Structures are given as C-alpha cells and as structure tokens.
Fold these 2 entries.
Entry 1:
Amino acid sequence: MSLTIADLKKGEKAIIVDSSSEDIPLKLLEMGCLPGNIVELLQVAPFHDPIYLNINDSYLAIRKETAALILIDIINE
Amino acid sequence: MSKQINVALIGNPNTGKTSVFNALTGLNQKVGNYPGITVDKKEGICKLSRGVKAHILDLPGTYSLNASSLDENVVIELLLNKNDKNYPDVAVIVSDVENLKRNLLLFTQIKDLKIPTILAINMADRMSRKGISLDIELLEKELKTKITLVSTRKNEGITDLKALIENYKTLSTEPCLDTSTIDTEYFNSLKQAFPNQDLYKLWVVISQDANFGKIDRNELDFSKFKTKSKSELKRLQQKETIKRYQFINGVLKEGQTIDVTKAKGLRAQFDRVLTHKVWGYVIFFVILLTIFQAIYDWATVPMDFIDSSFASLADWIKVTFSGGGKLTNLIAEGVVAGIGGIVIFIPQIAFLFLFIAVLEESGYMSRVVFLMDRIMRRFGLSGKSIVPLISGTACAIPAIMATRNIENWKERLITILVTPFTTCSARLPVYLIIIALVIPEGRFLGLSYQALTLMLLYLIGFGMAVFSAYILDKILKTNRKTFFVIEMPSYKVPLLKNVILTVIEKTKTFVFEAGRIILAISIVLWILASYGPGKEFNNAETIVEQTYPELQGEQLENKVASYKLEHSFIGIVGKTIEPAIRPLGYDWKIGIGLVTSFAAREVFVGTLATIYSVGSALDDDDKTIKNRMANEVHDNGKKVFTLASGISLLLFYAFAMQCMSTLAIVKRETNSWKWPMIQLFGMSLIAYIVALIAFQILK
C-alpha cells in the first residue's frame, strides 16, 4: 500500500517517490514535483480539497484528485 | 529611422515581470490583442542611450516552453518563428530571487533556443530578509549569460538592464543543455531525419500538443521518422525537466547560499488567518462587502456627476445649435447620450479593477481561489468565479472583464454566461417602481413585503446564475484537458504604479472596445424613436392640438412627445410585439419599454415616463408617474399594472438579457458573436417562459 500526497496531514513532510502518472499535468512536474524532492502539506481547504503544498520551495495548491497520483514516503521527524 | 532593438520580456507568473515592463516603458505602452485570440498583447517603447530605442514586448507569464494555455502558446509561437516582426533580438528572463531554481527552468529552455538572453533577477530587495546571497560572477559564467539584480520597488537595476539590452550583441548564445543527452538514441535518429533543423526547436515542435496550430509541423517531413506515442513523449518531457533541474541544482549549489536562520517571512502567519476554515471566509466576506459598497455606493457620486454633465451638455447643444434641426438632435440625443451611456460605467469599472489589482498584486487572490474552489467546482465554476459573480451585483460589465483571471476556458466561459443573471444595479430602478406599484404595503415578521420582494429578487438572480452554471457544466464539452495548479505567491505590498496602470488599461479597453458597439446601438435606438412613417408621426403637433385643444405649454409638449413615440418606428415595434407579450400581461407601451431597455435597463422608467407624458424628471414627478401607471388601463378597462403583471414584469427583468453593453463586452471577451447571442436568446427565453407562467397563474 503506497502513500500519496493526498494522505499527508497538515504539517507533515514527505519525499516524492514517483510522479510519472500520465494524468499529472506537466506544469506540476515543472514546478518541482519530481522524485527525490521534498513536499510539505501547509494547509487544507474545507473537505480536504484543494490542498496547499510546498514542493521543492514552490508554494502551490492542487486538487485532491491530482494529489492522489503522486507517490511519497513520509519523513518521520 | 534609428534601429530598434526587439526585446521580449519572459518569465514565470508572479515574478514582477509587469513591474519591470512598467519600469522600462512608463506610459509608453499599449495593450492590443494577438490576432484571433483574446490574449492581451502588451508592448511599449524604452529609450536607451544615443537615440537607440527598444521595443519591449511583455509576453504572458509561463512556467516553461510546454504550453498548457493559449497565453503560454503565444510565447512559443513567437520564439519559434524567426520571421515574426516581433521575434526578439534579445530575451530578458525576469525571475523571482526567492525561487530562482524554478525560474531557471524556463531560462535554460529559452537559452537552448539560441536566443541572446539576459537574466534579470527581480525583487532583489528581499534577498537579505530571506537570507539569500548570490555569486553573480559564478552564475553568469555557469549560465553563460549576463545577470542584473533588479528591484522595481526601489527602482534599482533598471539602468543596468537597459545597458545590457543595448549591448545584446555581446551575449553568448551557447545553450545550457545538450538536448541529445535527454535520450541519446531518440535524438540521434531525430538528427538524422532532419539534419538541417535545430535539434531543440524540433523537439519543442514535436512535443507540443497537436492543436497548437500555427507552428507549422507540416513543413517537417515525418515520413522518414518514427514518431513516438503521446505517453512516450510525455516521459521524455519529464526526463528533460529532470535533466534541467540537475543542471540548475548543480549551478545553484555553488552560486547561491540560503541562510535559513535569517529567513523571515510572514507567509505562514498570514496564511494561518487568511486560509483559515472560518476566519478565511469571514475576511473574504468583509472584503467583498467593501468592494460591493464601493461599486454600489461610492461610485454613484461620480456617476451622478457624469450623468448630469452629459445631460447639460446635450441641453446646451440643443440650445446653442437650435438651427441645426435633425442633426443637432442626433448629436444631442443620440451621440452625446450614447457616449454618456458609456462614460457613466467608468467609475464602477475603475473601482472594481482597483480592488482586483490590489488583491492580485498582494497575493491574496490565490488564497480566495484556494478557499472557494471546492464549493464553486460543484457548479462547474472555478474558485476564481466568485469575484465576477459577486461584482455582477453592481454591474455585469466589469464583472465579465474580471473573468480574465480564470485560466480554464470552460470555467471562464460558464462564469461569463451566468454572471448577467445576478441582479445588477440597473435593474434596481425598475424593481423599485414596480414593487411600489403592485406589492401591497404591510409587514411580515416586522419586514415590509416590499423589502422582502426586493431581497427575493436578488436571491433569485444569484440562484439562477448558480443553477444555470450547473446545467451548462453538463452541456458544454471541451476537448482540452483541464487541471488545477495554482501558485500561492508570497504576500507583497501592492505597487501603486502597477495598480494605477491596470485600472487605466482596463478602463481604456472598456471605453474603446465595448464603447463603439454601445454608441452604435444607442444611435440606432435614437433614430428608431425619432422617426416614423406616415402622417401620424409627421403631423403629430397638429393632430394633438386638434384632439386636445385644452392643452397648453409643457403639457402639450409632453402629449406631442408621447404621440410621436407611439407612431415612431420603435412605437410600431412595440405594437408589433404586443401579441407576443400580451400573454405576459403587458401592453404595447410596456413593449416599447422592453425594447428601449436594451440601451440600459434603467431606461425603462424614463421611457414609460415619456409614453405616459409626464416628463422625464422622475424625482419631482415620482408620484405622478406612479399614479399614471397605477391608473393605466387596457382597452377593456382592466388595470395594466396588477399583482400578476407586476410580478411577471419583475421576473422578466430578473432573467432577460436586456443590456447591449453586456452583450458587447461578452463579444469582446469570447471573441465571437456566438456566446452573446446564446445569452440574448437563452436568457430572454427563460425570462419569457417564467414571466408567462407567473402571469397565467396569478391573473
């Protein structure tokens, strides 16, 4: 069972493991959503959607359906 | 003619690219359109030394050369087409010092197109606060470019930038990345198939979506070459991105140090409040109330002034050039009144865009989108639709212009189509007089029936907007795949210069683009109301004098005006449509009001005043016009304005598309007559049916 960005809780950090799904917009990859980069969940809107992230020093918001395509490993601090 | 240097300003959104543009060009700028599409084309002239001038083109913000919107496509088309008259001699990449890593992705791509490129690192004033230090010399060497640190806020670095532009010929055009390292095998076969083409340009053309037309793929003969499937291409694009980031990370590792302990930022604190599940919405609501108040209330002062100024100007023309006959009347009542009808919207448009520019510049707008997206998405709208929908309560025209911020075309189109359902301020005078006529006085739970009716009308308008958005979302199909990625920029104090230039630009767009159409229709309406066929119209004075010999002075004039209107072309139109509107409970006089409402809805009241020959000074004669309307009877002696016909009329005004200014702006924003026509007929049909049902039930 692999985790995705959609499973992150507020304040949690993770390392992106895979973002090769075809349904991930290229724009997101270009903003730094690539394997090895760190992602942090900063804020969630009501109904947990959209979510507000810091990926590789870019601050952005994406919808949950997209977040569920990006596989991660959670960093335990 | 002295030589002009073509400069293209390129950069990610939110990097302050427009500030750099404003700093370079000042007021020497104009906004046009790229042919065939509604993407703004901003260009300006910048004076360099010794009489050399630079033509600056502010290209739409983009994160990379892989276009996902029409705006971004403009950038690629220009950079791939050496024959374009705006093809840059030099590209200036504006980047944000706080996110150099991401900004450099686009930089390396532009560089690989072998265009001389300058890197302008903007917002340099934030460096110390963020603990960032840069080794410029090393970066220049690694990136094979010239770098200038710019702070538009402190007006620093612009002179250096101008000097670099002037000496663009000394810039290296060596690429950053060897394209073939992305996938050696694939790119080698590409090179063999097209030995005369630049490899990276080829790759950009091949990897773009096929519907991005104008880059001519047909010139390339693909028969000798095995193309890749879409998903394989995407994998290659991903590989390219990874390669580029590897290069950038390598460069920045040496050239940039960030001392995190020194980094101070208010982002987290602001976000905690502004995107809070409760406070976020409360604050947004308060901001909306302020905007609404400004457009609805504060704007009335300049609007009243404009209104009275144009009225006196028209009177002055009539008196001064009284010998001019029909021409004088055309100028005074057609042209001047028409221009007045355009100018009167300027205060509302300026106020709305003042607020929007501040909200955008400060970075707050992205937070609103974040908060509202989920709710609005249920109705096929975007988080960004909320601002147009709310400002539509003042006036649909600035509201529709404000939909520009919605990148997704389908969501933007739906927003444009449904916004006119919200109750705009022009409906208010109509509502007020009809409510006063047909809704009984009395109270329900301490609230007057009349006030409740008015509130209900506002709710019906908003409800209809949301409901029709929901329906349109089901009907409209788009072939473009839509996704939602928005950047959450850092908070900034808005630059006054940028805000003011935005307000001026939007106002100018409205006055000159929509204004032409409004003026034309005003003149047509005036002609229709001022001319008529046959002897009734032309001998109105004599006929009225004979029929009502007891009338004198102003009363006589009013009666003549009323008689003329009845027999003018527009009066004939009113009589012609009477059979169609009779089932709704209206007579031909109301019919004329409906037709003239196209100039602006509030004209309804003035038209009825003319028809009932009580003069147009509404305020003094309010009682009189109300009394006249209250006493108006059909041929069979029944009253015209009853509860049934009144409610029917209110609902008709709530739903019908009766505003040519809105139609004109929709035409401009969608670049086609199709959508305004759909609005005109669709909304008017809904209005007709609802009004019909209401009248038939209530009568």
Entry 2:
Amino acid sequence: MAAIYSLFIINKSGGLIFYKDYGSAGRMDTNDSLRLASLWHSMHAISQQLSPIVGCTGIELLQADTFDLHCFQSLTGTKFFVVCEPGTQHMEVLLKVIYELYTDYVLKNPFYEMEMPIRCELFDLNLSQAIQKDRVSLLGR
Amino acid sequence: MIGVGKAKQYANVLDKPLSRGRQEVSLSAFAFLFSELVQYNQTQVDNIAELERRLEDAGYAVGARVLELLCHREKGNRRETRLLGILSFIHSTVWKVLFGKVADSLEKGTEHEDEYMISEKELLVNRFISVPKDMGAFNCGAFVAGIVRGVLDSAGFPAVVTAHFVPIEGQQRPRTTILIKFAEEVLRREARLG
C-alpha cells in the first residue's frame, strides 16, 4: 500500500507552521522537522533562480530512492509538502485538498494569527479525514 | 449558501421592494467578515466575558432589524404576541432567512419553567471556527444569541440569551445550544393570557 510519511506546511519566510507524521517511517523530532522545513524553503527558492525556464515556480516533485517529496506553493507563498513512498500517485490533488482545508479552517478562524503555528481543532479533524479518505481510495484501486 | 442571485440595481434604496424572496450571500465572504468582527472586538476587550458581550450586542442590532423586516415581509405586518408563537417564529422563520434552514431543535428546559433552548448541531457562524483551549467555554454563537435576544426584546419578550457548547455522545464536535431565559414579567403575562 502506498503511504504518506509526513506532511509539512511552511509560511512564506520558511518557518514551519504545521508538521504531522503518519506511521513510523521517516519520523523525526521537532528540531529536525524545523531544520528540514527551512532547508526545503531555501532549496525551493534557489531552484527558482537556477531554472533555465522563465517564470519557474520552484520544485514540485523531488524523487529519491526511498521517498518522493511533492510540493505545492500557494500564491501567497505558503508551501505545503508531503513526503511519501516512491511512486505514490495523486499527491497533487491531495495537496490541493489540504490547501482548501487550510483556507477554510485556518484562515477563516478568528483565533489564528497569520504566519504562526497552526493550532486549530477543526483543521486537524478535517485533515485526518481527508488523509483517511485518500488512503481508502488508494486501497480501493 | 453559495451562489448569489443577480439582483436588479436600484438607484434609490427605497424603490427596492422588500419582499425579494430569498437572497443568499457567499459563505466564504460571510466567514471572513465574521472572523474580522471577532478579531476586531478581541482587540477592544481585556477579558472573554467582555468579548462575549460585545458579540452579543452586535447580534442584537441584527435581531431588532430582522424582526422588523420579517414581520413585514412574511407576516403581513403582524407580529407574534404569545411565547410559543415568537419562539417558533425564531426557530423556523428567522433561522431560515438567516441560515437557510430551520434550527435543529427547540426545547423547553426541564429544570426551569422560564428556560427554552434552541439547539444547532453545526451553527453557521461556528463552521470554520476552532476556539483555543485557553479561552475555555467561549462560543462565537454569542453573536447568534444576540440576534435571538434582539428579536425577543423588540417583540416585547425581554430575556437573557446565552450560547453554550454541549457535547454530544459519539460525536467529536459539540453542538451549540442557545439558552433563552425569559424575564418574570413575560411569564406572568403569559399566565394571565391563559
């Protein structure tokens, strides 16, 4: 079964505002996750500059031997990325769904402060439902 | 509540007919506006009770206007004068116009004669709101409680109205209950009317 290892959301200045891991593979402690998030932020920015293509928006997919990293950047610069098993399909769609949940349950929440870590009960709830649904649909194939 | 009807533009607001059927606004637009309302009021207060009161006052103004409008539009310039009448008017007519549906339930309090409850599984204003743990039992439904108080007060039924989260068994999310406690004079009048 294809699996998602972890999900990161980073703000426009590279700070980690949300981290969640699923299952044991690729689990890391708080410091490591913060480091990886800002590392990815810088790599993403450099890739935009290095790209030979005009108007490049940065890395969307990083494929490694042991994992795939799918990244989605919103227009405001917030980045969502998932680390998953190599060859996992439909991650772009999942990232869009997560973005939608973020706009609904985080941005419309009066108690959320912009660019700060996300602590919203409804977001957690709906996110785990979306990931669950995604797993079910992957199993069904 | 998505999808906005294309309304005809009137140069003068007074030319616009009052009974224009149901018009809906974008839920997102409302959610952002409401979120701003809460955030603004948060900057003006130093405790949660005060925030609750300010939200309620904002709702009160809506309630008073809604009563005026709906009595004219739906009831031919008549308004309810009996307790149960006005409660079911709020539960069905007001709720339908404001939230697009009838409220989930209207019950009489079991312990006190003067208490009534309107319950809603997922209150529209709370759809996207997660209250942080350190704010305790604060409920943004205070705004809706204010609307209910506005309607009741303007119709001659003074009451204290509050919003509470009530956990439901087997559900992760609590429902919101609007608790209405009528003033003594209202009950005395009701008893006299028989």
